[in-house]
Amino acid sequence: MLFKQQALLRQKLFVLGSLAIGSVLYLVARVGTLDRLQPICPIDSRLSTPEPEQIPLRTLQFKRGLLHELRKGNATKEQIRLHNLVQQLPQAIIIGVRKGGTRALLEMLNLHPAVVKASQEIHFFDNDQNYARGIDWYRGKMPFSFPHQITIEKSPAYFITDEVPERIFKMNSSIKLLIIVREPTTRAVSDYTQVLEGKERKNKTYHKFEKLAIDTNTCEVNTKYKAVRTSIYTKHLERWLKYFPVEQFHIVDGDRLITDPLPELQLVERFLHLPSRISQYNLYFNATRGFYCLRFNIVFNKCLAGSKGRIHPEVDPSVVTKLQRFFHPFNQKFYQITGRTFNWP
Ligand code: A3P
User: Fold this and answer.
1) Could you report the per-residue pLDDT of 106-133, keeping only the tens digit for each?
2) From the candidates 4, 63, 77, 99, which is the catalytic residue?
3) Which cysteines does the record link by disulfide bonds (predicted)?
4) Which residue's CA is minimally distant from atom 17 of ligand 1?
């Protein structure tokens, strides 16, 4: 009998102890989150309100809590209605460039309390079948958010697909467009590396980069090779400029996003008229990964998947030089149009 009572007491103490530890951990996590999330002004397409308004506390709590439940399909219709949650069309889109650092940019912007990201690439505007499903289908793919938050999606194929600028224009002619670029030859090699990995996984043979990038008959750069064409940024941008004024684009330096992300993110915050909320606290260098990773609070942090930051194959230096010379005049034009200059060779 006495033994039974002692066991019961031990059990109770264990439950109480676990509850106490759980509460402490919860409080610590909350303090970490609230620490960095200062009150901010409401964000919408007319983003010039000078007076910052407080973001309600529930926004902070629900951004990672309820929205997570919503993604998993666990939140009830009542919860959605009660908290005034909506699925909004994106007010900003990362339209490219493939392998420029589009995922890192989206995930880093999502650190901002007023930003909600569409996790998947939706491919609404570049895929005819998806586009035919209509704008409500697209909206249905968007995450739930509070009305004052902005939704951002990224589909890098948008940048290079002919039909996309007109289709986006028809949806929202004042949308904000983000383009993240890297030094064009490095980007082309990164593009090649991704395709190569896919082929290797399927046990398929694939040519060396040099063979694809250089036309063996003429010894000139092979402009039919998609990885080369994608890196001619100015050609693609010119198509977009038929629909949108240059002020509606913001160019992100993808090379700097790798080595020193915060200043690039601050420029984007400014472009989106968001108060500056992403701080050095949210970004820490992970020596094992060799990249910056994301810190939401003292409990929750994450690095990008291993498919981001692959080791590139060695490329013949003469081919690198040939490509750099080839891209040079296009780069100059790109600087001229965008007003953003890079130290590309
Ligand atoms: P590499 O794999 O060539 O290194 P995208 O998301 O558009 O496909 O771009 C992938 C690139 O994002 C990677 O190219 C990587 O260099 C870059 N990148 C930028 N910041 C990163 C980060 N914090 N973690 C991982 N990769 C990052």
Assistant:
1) 999 999 999 999 999 999 999 999 999 9
2) 99
3) 293-303
4) 101
